[in-house]
Amino acid sequence: MGQIHQPFPVLLFMAVFSSLDAAFPWARQQAEACFGPIELESEAFPFESFTDYYAPTMGKILPKRLWGFQQLIDPSELPKIKRQTNEWESEFQTISEQKTVERPLNMDPGYIDLGKLILASTKDHAHRIYLSDGIFAETTLLFVQKKWKPLPWSYPDYQSEGYMTFLSRCRDYLKSKRIVSNT
Asked: Which domains does the chain have, with CATH numbers?
């Protein structure tokens, strides 16, 4: 029989994209007020070069930023975090002065542990596991043999070199935080 134990803390990760410049500082302010400082931030990736799925509701030019937070979290918090980011998306939609797009902001939280990247979703699918409160989780990438490996359902942007480089920085940060907490 296996021994039951609490999971190690994980690195809160968030992908944010919008066609509106004002969305990024607003989303950052909300996220940092709730989850603490962002420790790592990616360059702006051109999300529209990976898919046009969001173009009808969000616009054609969609820069996407990835954030890694300073404070580690318990992985069981992911449903609560996803519900919070959905509320912020709705709030920004109502307060945004730009009414040119139907959905002006997308905030996708997840977490990184030493072996995988997990993303939260409100949508069920064969490869997603129900967590709670209407939220599902998907293993998007695995960290195997010292590099990130995509799965058959991994989004094309998460398979790109730029994303994987950033995610490796996040993983290294998580590893350093765990080493410090064990000393």
From this structure: 10-182 (3.30.70)
**What size, in residues, is the chain?**
183
Which of 19, 13, 81, 72 has its CA nearest to residue 44?
19
Distance CA 164, CA 154 (A): 12
CA dihedral of 119, 106, 86, 175, whole degrees rounded to 10 = 40
Alpha-carbon gap, residue 181 to 102, rounded angstroms: 44
pTM given for the model? 0.94
Contact 97, 59 (CB under 8 A): no
DSSP assignment letter at 156: G
Q: What is the DSSP string of 129-149?
A: EEEETTEEEEEEEEEETTEEE
How far is Cα 159 from Cα 151, in angstroms, rounded to an integer? 9
Q: What is the CA radius of gyration of the chain?
A: 16
Per the DSSP assignment, residues forming a β-bridge with 13 are 68, 110
At 123-136, the pLDDT tens digits run 999 999 999 999 99
